[in-house]
Each structure stands twice: as structure tokens, then as C-alpha cells.
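User: I'm curious whether this sequence folds into something compact or stays loose and floppy. Could you predict its structure so I can see for myself?
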Amino acid sequence: MGDLAFVFPGQGSQIVGMGRAVYEQSARARDTFDEADRTVGYELSKICFAGPSGDLDNTTVAQPAILTTSVAILEAFIESVNAKLGHRSSDGVEPRGVAALPASLRPRFVAGHSLGEFTALVAAGVLTFQDALRLVTERGRLAASRGAKGAMAAIVGLPAEEVERVINDTLPRGSAVVANDNGPSQVTIAGDSESVARASEALTKHGARKVVPLRISAPFHFPDMGRIGPDLAAFMHTLHFHEPVVPIVANVSAMPHPSASAIPDALVRHLSNRVEWLRSVRYMAERGASTFVEIGAGQVVNGLVKRIADVKLLNVSDPLSITGALSILRERAAAAPR
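Assistant: Here's the prediction. I'll summarize afterward.
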């Protein structure tokens, strides 16, 4: 189609019941959840569908759960597209991810918000789903066992530069940082729990409209999380990274990964560097992406995108929204100049 961007949510988007509807109606979604259960060695699907929420919020579970749910929804979307075109469902041999879509529905860019970047890697064919699942499971395990301890909070009503200034004026250097630049007036901060609490109080006094503690058990995009980088890099040596079939806009640079060989280093820096979501969305919009399709549980990412760019927003999270999004995309494709 040429004007599509597929975007995927990260940690914090998890909700009990996610993925159940597509599991019940899509063979490809069922295959995805079943493969996840076999790969991680426990009933991840059951936690996604029935909770408890405390388990789903734990980093070691949340990371594979969010990846699996988003990939399952993407696969259900692809299955629906191909069914309407009279194509057979994948038997695991034919292309997966966006490579399985017709050219008119293949995105110009893919990107993921924070953890969602790993889903983007699967969508663009860089990693198989199983390898990406193994990777985020190891990432979560390392973060929980040897990573930084602390908290994260969303700050609404102030730009990143102002939040950074208040933090630097209030706290010892490096104890809390801007972890995600999510939009013109929304950022996420990360740090040790006491520093995040002190920064939150200072930012409220400075004019933040809202401060929302995030449901995470480890602070990502925080310098101290970089201590697990060497172990994560060593694990990635066991994986095979393919060249992406569509550009993946990287969180750490807000530009497409230049090659498959550069991706592991970017994923290591992803642990400790800021998520440049504001710049990433602007990059895609300025280069022709006028319709953003969020694929995953909820509409967290589209809520951020709408504050950054004047673009069409679609959500794909369950069978009903798949049908609605596909209808809109097919109408737009039919109306496009030829």
C-alpha cells in the first residue's frame, strides 16, 4: 500500500484476557500460542487468558506474553487477509510476518514501542517467532536476576527536555532518567524506586498534569540495566538474524536498522538507552506513513501516535477489529491512484 506503518505495544500493555478471542477464532493464532507454551515450558497462554494479573505483570512473564499476543494477533490478521483473497493458511513453510501479506497491505515501516521492537523484528522476518520468544524470555530472566532494580512512571504534561532538567536539578546524576520520549508532553522516567518517587513529586510541583506508576518489575532504558548487556549479547550469538523485508525503525536511533548485523548491538543499547518514540513516529510520518496500524493488546501506542502526527489510526486486537481494519484498508487500496 505504501502508506502503512505497523506498530506494536510494549510492556505495560498487558491485560488479563489478551489474545483469547483470536486464539478461539484463528488457527494461526492458536499455533502461535501453542508454540509459545512449548518454547517457554509452561502455560503462558493460560496466564494471558486468565491471569492472575500479578503473574502477568512480572517482567519474566510479561515480556514473552506481550510478544506472543502481538504475534498471534498479527498472524490472525494475515490469516484473515489471505482467506479473503482465497489463499491457503500457512503451513509453516511459506513466508511468515508481513512477507505473507499482498503488496497492497505490506507496511512501509514497522516499529515497536520499547519491548514491542522485538515483535517488529518478527513481523519483518529478522527473527523467527521462536527465536524472538527465547530472546525476550532470556532478557526478562536476566533483568529479574541481575538487572537494575527500581521503578518507572509516566509523566503527562511536560516535554522530555523539561522533565530531564527537573530530574537533574532534583536528584544525583544517573539515579533517574527519561527512559521513553513518548510525545510532545508525555515521557516515562526510570530509576531506583526512591529516586522515581522523588522525581515524580518534583515534577508534579513543576506542573506535570499526571504521574502514573507503571506496572513493571524492573526499570528498562535505564543505565544500570546495561549491566546485563554482555550476557544478552552472548545469548544473541546463538540466534540467526535475517535481513528485514521492510524497514524497522529502531527505538534507540529513531531510524531504520541499517542491517541485520547491526541489530544485536542496538538491542543491547536498548536496555540502557532512551526510547525515541516521538522521533520514530515523526520519521515514519515524514516519509509517507499516513496510516498507523497498532497490532496487539489495547490501544496504548496509538494513543501516543495521535499526539505526535496527523495520521489515520487503526487498531487490530481481536477478530472484530481485524475485520474492521481490513475493510478500511481494502477500501483505501481500491481508491488509491493506479
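Summary: The longest strand covers residues 176-183. The two ends are 11 Å apart (CA to CA).
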